[in-house]
């Protein structure tokens, strides 16, 4: 299977990158070395970056029916000439970027290129981005930089203007459903429903298709929103959202920390339960200590709430669709709740539906700004009352 086959609904971007990889054999000097991959959350921009890195590194340009050893290493994150920077923290630190710059100056050990991939470059503070600027403008002749962000507008103009931008599309529901069926063996009806509810977000679609509890919590949130008529109900729904976000985030963070600990012990030749030598104890605590668990939980809880806010916004999106008679053209996201959403569309004015979508955006920004999640959610739910 080609390294590109895992990309869902991104034919134009894939065709472009295939041509770029093929043309480097004839005109290496013309190769663009600074890239910015832009796409909404879940569109697969990080996966596309890995596929591009694998195609640049592998002798078969990632087109073979069977993956080469180089391709497998790149996709596993273990190739010595491909460096990834992904963070579970709120922002990417300046020390991390400086380490990348040092790596970018080194000659590749086995491959034609040294490839540096930065996921979520929009999480960099301006001071950190300025450290990266010179390397993006004048990369080492053997280095390719691939930056990923939700949109070009999320990146400082100084970086944006020095990169070649590749924009990803939102995958269609059919493309996502087909992917779930072929890659995960998901039953057809569940795959179609998960794709519709995820609204083009591949990661969320996979989550809905594989985790019945998360899917149930989404259904309960929509029902709770549509049944919400009093301030007490709004506050209780906000509390439930905050509690479930913390529970999901903690489960995820603990799972990731356990996996990192297992990798750390394997790399350092330690068996489970073996004491960690004092010489590497600092690195051990930095990787899986309480502070790291807390940071990951905070980051993940924001991701869970972001997904919940998208769910709530989808209800008012469906209201707007019904109010404007556009259901036949664009369909409903929350098809199972059509009757209740139709009733809400009668009680709400068109301006009222749009105003509630705006209020959800305000709550999202407040949560991202390190406000009190619980207070922000309670205030938003009260504002949504009809």
From TrEMBL:
Biological process per Gene Ontology, one example term: DNA-templated DNA replication
Annotated SMART domains: AAA
Pfam families reported in the protein's UniProt record: DNA_pol3_delta2 (PF13177)
Gene3D superfamilies with a match to the protein in the record: P-loop containing nucleotide triphosphate hydrolases
Boundaries of every AAA+ ATPase domain copy: 31-311
Domain of life: Bacteria
Name this polypeptide is given: DNA polymerase III subunit delta
Annotated organism of origin: Bifidobacterium xylocopae
């Amino acid at each position: 299977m080609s390294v590109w086959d895992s990309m869902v609904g991104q034919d134009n971007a894939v065709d472009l990158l295939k041509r770029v990889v093929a043309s480097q054999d004839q005109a290496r000097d013309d190769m663009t070395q600074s890239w910015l991959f832009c796409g909404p959350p879940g569109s697969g921009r990080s996966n596309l970056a890995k596929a591009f890195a694998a195609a640049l590194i592998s002798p078969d340009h990632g087109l073979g029916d069977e993956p080469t050893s180089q391709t497998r290493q790149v996709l596993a994150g273990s190739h010595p000439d491909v460096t990834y920077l992904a963070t579970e923290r709120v922002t990417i630190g300046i020390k991390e970027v400086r380490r990348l710059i040092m790596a970018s100056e080194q000659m590749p050990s086995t491959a034609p290129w040294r490839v540096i991939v930065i996921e979520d470059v929009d999480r960099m503070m301006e001071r950190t981005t300025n450290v990266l600027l010179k390397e993006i403008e004048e990369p080492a002749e053997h280095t390719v930089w691939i930056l990923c962000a939700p949109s070009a507008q999320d990146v400082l103009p100084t970086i944006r203007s020095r990169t070649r931008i590749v924009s990803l599309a939102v995958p269609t529901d059919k493309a996502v459903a087909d992917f779930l069926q072929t890659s995960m063996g998901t039953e057809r009806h569940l795959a179609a429903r998960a794709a519709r509810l995820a609204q083009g977000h591949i990661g969320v679609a996979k989550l809905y298709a594989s985790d019945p509890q998360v899917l149930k919590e989404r259904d309960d949130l929509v029902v709770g929103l549509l049944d919400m008529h009093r301030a007490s109900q709004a506050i209780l729904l906000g509390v439930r959202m905050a509690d479930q976000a913390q529970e999901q985030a903690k489960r995820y963070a603990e799972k990731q920390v356990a996996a990192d600990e297992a990798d750390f012990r394997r790399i350092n030749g330690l068996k489970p339960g073996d004491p960690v030598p004092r010489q590497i104890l600092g690195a051990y605590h930095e990787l899986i200590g309480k502070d790291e668990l807390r940071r990951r939980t905070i980051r993940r809880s924001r991701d869970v709430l972001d997904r919940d806010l998208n769910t709530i916004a989808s209800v008012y999106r469906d209201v707007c669709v019904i109010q404007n008679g556009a259901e036949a053209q664009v369909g409903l996201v929350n098809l199972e709740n059509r009757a209740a959403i139709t009733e809400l569309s009668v009680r709400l004015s068109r301006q009222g539906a749009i105003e509630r979508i705006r209020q959800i955006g305000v709550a999202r920004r407040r949560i991202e700004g390190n406000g009190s999640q619980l207070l922000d959610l309670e205030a938003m739910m009260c504002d949504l009352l009809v």
